[in-house]
Predict the 3D structure of the following.
Amino acid sequence: MKKSNSTSLKSFSKFCLILSLLVFIPISSCTEKDSTNIETEVPLTEIDTNTVFVADIDTLIEEVIVENNISKANKIIAQLDSTTSLGKKIIEIQKEIYPDPAKYDHIFKGSQIEINIGMEQKYIDRKILLAKVIETIKEDNKTNDSYRESRGKSFISNLDKSQDLWYKYMRSQILVKYPEDSYSRDVSAFNLCYFEYLIELTDQRIVMLNNWLIGEVSGKMCSGTIENKR
């Protein structure tokens, strides 16, 4: 009985030795290879972030934004009907929805007060565009009998209710990010931040409602009241 136990103990010891060799040999090999053959990565803190580098990145990002905006607008415009006055109006709206960012470059070239005022004006421009999008949706619905019939009589009233609710959402969302008792309202750049966020929320609404102007691709299911125009 004792001999059997001794044999079992020896077998277990051999198993442990083999297992340890299997585990530690690759690890030691990798460690040695790392120390001799693999170059150590430069820590992020040692990367040179001079103003020229930052300016190059900013320029690259701006170029991508411009290219994307122009590409989006052109892609949509190419699929729209430009033979009617309403179609031409919708096309012009697409150019306003996806503008050249250079249009507002002047905003950041003045004092903080001038920047704040410039950002407020940009918000006013987007707010006017949102109203134009809604007005054009209603005009499109009014002038096209097939749209009006398929959408139903309640479409316009539902659109108005939706816009009222969205406006309440926007005001509430502003207070979530910038509460009335927040210290962030006391800084000189607050108006810049405030109107920048209003622009972001307004642009989201514009892009959403624009679907009813440009329509869906022909044959797409589940489009609801968004007509298949493209």
